[in-house]
Amino acid sequence: MKAAILLENGFESTEALTTHDIFLRSKRIDVDLISTSNLDLVESSNGLKVVPDKKLKDVDISSYDFIVLPGGKKGVINLKANEEVRKIVVRFKENKRPVYAICAAPSILGELGYLDDKEYVCFPGFESGKGTCLAKGAHRDGDLITGHSMAFTIDFAIEILKKELGEEAAREVLDGARGHI
Question: How far apart are CA 156 and CA 122, in angstroms?
Fold first, then answer.
């Protein structure tokens, strides 16, 4: 299984990198950090410079099973301004392939109409669309998984693992991370 985490300058580092780490720990998801602006370095909202695995211009995005949109106010503004990102989200949704979003990023889905009649979570102030925004850390509504904020990144990523790989795979990642107490 392949996942793409789409990065623009201003992305929220915990949401992108922790999700990436949890997917790697599953040992069943190949995950790439992809620079959607084709930069050699992508800078997070707190100034962390990350070397992406790939640049969007160099990948066949349709080869990925799902994509993840991390938050970060500036990062989400930049994702929204990138017409290619909007096209990717639309193609994935039209082909019934998952797009998962956390923090401010669910607003991208809302603006495109993909939150209509759905329950979702997001960072306060980024509610969008005609769905119902809930007050919780992470939420799954059918094929839609959304996360509230950086503080709930592990919950968000584990919810994705449960959906994509099953409860047992998610439990194995959590048990491995907890170690022995």
Answer: 11
Full-model pTM: 0.96
Fill in the DSSP letter of residue 11: B
Instruction: Calculate mean pLDDT across residues 70-85.
Output: 98
Distances (CA, A) of 176 to 19, 158, 181: 15, 13, 12
Residue carrying the six token digits 């990065």: 7
The domain over range 2-178 is classified in CATH as 3.40.50.880: yes
CA distance 88 to 61: 8
Report the DSSP pairing between strands 99-102 and 119-120.
unpaired
DSSP single-letter state for residue 44: B
The residues pairing with 144 across neighbouring beta strands, listed in sequence order, are 141
143 pLDDT more than 80: yes
